[in-house]
Amino acid sequence: MGMKLCGSDFVACRGFLYTVFILNFVLCCHLLQLQPFVDGKPGDTAALFERVSQSIKAKKYNEALADLTAAIEADPALSEAYWRGASILRQLCRYEESEKSYKKFLEMKPGNSAAEKELSQLYQAQNALSSAHNLFDSGDFTKALEYIDKVVLVFSPACPKAKLLKVRLLLASKDYSNAISETGYILKEDEDNLEALLLRGRAYYYLADHDVATRHYQKGLRLDPEHGELKKAYFGLKNLLKKTKSAEDNASKGKLRLAVEEYRAALALDPNHTAHNVHLHLGLCKVFVKLGRGKDAVTSCTEVLEIDEDLVEALVQRGEAKLLVEDWEGAVADLKSAAEKSPQDMSIRETLMKAERLLKLSQRKDWYKILEVSKTASISEIKKAYKKLALQWHPDKNVDNREEAEAKFREIAAAYEILGDEEKRTRYDNGEDIDDNGMGMGGGGFNPFGGGAQQFTFHFEGGFPGGGFPGGFGGFHF
């Protein structure tokens, strides 16, 4: 029994001695680590500053500052540690802490020109950063970027605030590719930087790379589910995509009025998202064309072309819209531009030919308009209109404006010559060129008075009420 107790005590004793040995070993290691700071030997100090330099090179600034702080606590007279610390703090744009360390060093080493120069650089960087913030708020993004690039990041190259402000300025300037590059550098050093994740996501969002944007927002929200800006960006994007899909689905199903509402709702969510809105405007333009709302369609397609002037589909759709509002020249111009950009597309060429034919038709006289009848008027309505207008504009009844009356009378007679003849009217309605068949319409005008090379006879059966007119026009038989 005694032997067992003795053996047990021996094991416990051995464990206790082993623990004491380990604790002493750790304590000795700490003392050895602090020995250079205590003794202040040149070799040991050099090793400290070499370690600090290596930490800075590896961008482990906190480790470097921790070493310098420990050294100062061990030896408050170690002046160079203050200087080194001040320099690191300046690079991190922790300007107030840096200024205190510089001033402490200069108290210990007054007149040190190098330290005084660095302190001056600190003030320049501090003022430049403040100016850049003010310029950002006032909308002068270019000048603000100059302050960041040419001053702040020169004297404070590791400044996280300046780097993130630069990204915000790039986003505001719509330089999304460089914003992505800059945030990439930040996230390489700190992959969990929430603001960098947010800003990088926004850059991808404004390039309409919504999948990548969503992944950045989601990663940030996994790190901080209550982050206000990340939540707003993530759910805002989800809502935009939902509205867009609803608009496209309604358009494809023929629910055109609902599609118009959804497209407009999607566009209202973020008017600055041009890379995505260009597709929304184009979709809206197509719907308006299908609805026959030419004016609205022209407006929507013009919005598209202001964003991307070379988008062929928008040129074609705007050409179609201009046909609806009878802007023949505008339609031809848009469709010609589209055909030049896409010469192999035969459907564009067909639409262009249609527009050119309509333009040509629009440039000839509108005989229906001259006789003041509709295009569906019957032959009896056309005759009635002709008699009425011929009576109204007969030169013998317009002695005070005879020259104008003769011109108007010729035009009325020419209109009746076409529309009163079933064959000619059909050819005219079909868009055939009958001006060149000796009818005298268009350039020279129609001459019912026989003053030209041809003679035309017009006879109203039974004459006009009240008999003929004096001066050779009795009975209106020419």
Automatic annotation (TrEMBL):
Extent of the TPR repeats: 79-112, 194-227
Q: Which domain of life is it from?
A: Eukaryota
The record's listing under Pfam families reads: DnaJ, TPR_16, TPR_8
Q: Name one GO cellular component term.
A: endoplasmic reticulum lumen
Q: PROSITE patterns per the record?
A: DNAJ_1, DNAJ_2, TPR
* Primary residence: endoplasmic reticulum
User: What Gene3D superfamilies does the entry give?
Assistant: DnaJ domain (1.10.287.110), Tetratricopeptide repeat domain (1.25.40.10)
The record places domain J at 366-432
Bilayer-crossing residues are: 12-33
Task: Provide the protein's localization.
Answer: Endoplasmic reticulum lumen
Instruction: Name the chain's protein.
Output: DnaJ protein P58IPK homolog
Encoding gene, per UniProt annotation: LOC105174320
